[in-house]
Amino acid sequence: MTITVHYEWLVAFLLVLARALGWLAVVPPFSGRQSVPPAATMAIAVGLAVLVAPTVPASMVPLTTVGLIGGLLLGVTTGVAMGFVVSILIATATTAGSFLDLSGGLNLPPSLDPLSLDQTSMLGQFYEQVTIVLLFVSGGYMYLIDGFARSFQTPGFALGATSRIAETVVLDLATLFTSALEIAAPILVVLFAAQILLALLTKAAPQMNVWILGLPMQIFLAIVLVAIGVTVLPAYVGQLLTRALGDSTHLFGG
Questions:
Q1: For the chain, which terminal residue's Cβ has fewer other Cβ atoms within 10 angstroms, N or C?
Q2: Closest C-alpha among 41, 142, 156, 134 to residue 90
C-alpha cells in the first residue's frame, strides 16, 4: 500500500499548523489555560491545518528549505499577533468585572480561576466565564475560526506592517478600557451613590454605626446589580468579536 502526499499540500499543512499553534497559544479560551491538555491544543491545531491547508494560495507555498523555515517562523509570529489582538478585545469583560470588584467589596477573599488555575477577582472571573460561554453558545468561535482561515489571504507578518500592527494594538487597548468602563459604569455609579448615602447617614446620625452594615450591603447590592447588568454582555461580546475579526483580517493589510 502506497500513500502519496502532494508536496504543496504538505508544505501548506505545515504552514497552517505553525500559525494555528501560535494563534491557539494566545487566543481565548486556550491562552494560558493549564487545564487544557497540550494534546488537545495540538489536535485542534492539526484539525485547523487539515481544513485550511487546501485554501492556502499557491503563491504562499515556499519551494525551498530556507523558504519553508522562514515560512514556519512567519506563521508562528502571525498567529501570535492575531491571537493577541483577539485576546485584548475579549478581555474587556474580565476587565469590567475587575473594576466592579474594586468598588463592590468582593476583591478581599482570594479566588481560583478553574481554567487558568491562577488567582483572579471574583467578578472578573465571573464575567470571563460568561464571555467564554457566550462565544460557544452563540457560535462566536466559528467566526474566530473563519477569521483565522481568511488570514491566509493576506501576506502575513512583514516589517512594513509593523506600524499598522502597533496602531491596531494601541486602538484595541483603548477600546478595551472604554468598553470595560461602559459595561461597568452603571453599576459603579450606583455603588458610589450607595457609599455617599452611607456617609450622609453617618453624618446625620453619628450614634449609629452604619459602617457595620456598609460592607455587607455593598456586596449584596453589587451582586444584585451584576445579575441585572450581565444581560448587556451578549451585545458587547458580539460587537467586540466583530471588531476582533476585522482587526485580525486587516492586521497585515488584508
A1: N
A2: 134
Residue 1 lies in a domain: no
Pair 72, 18: CB distance under 8 Å: yes
Residue 45 lies in a domain: yes
Residue 202 lies in a domain: yes
pTM assigned to the model: 0.74
For residue 2, tell me if it sits in a domain. Answer: no
Q: What total number of domains does the chain contain?
A: 1
Report whether 156 contacts 22 (CB < 8 A): no
Domain around 234: 7-250
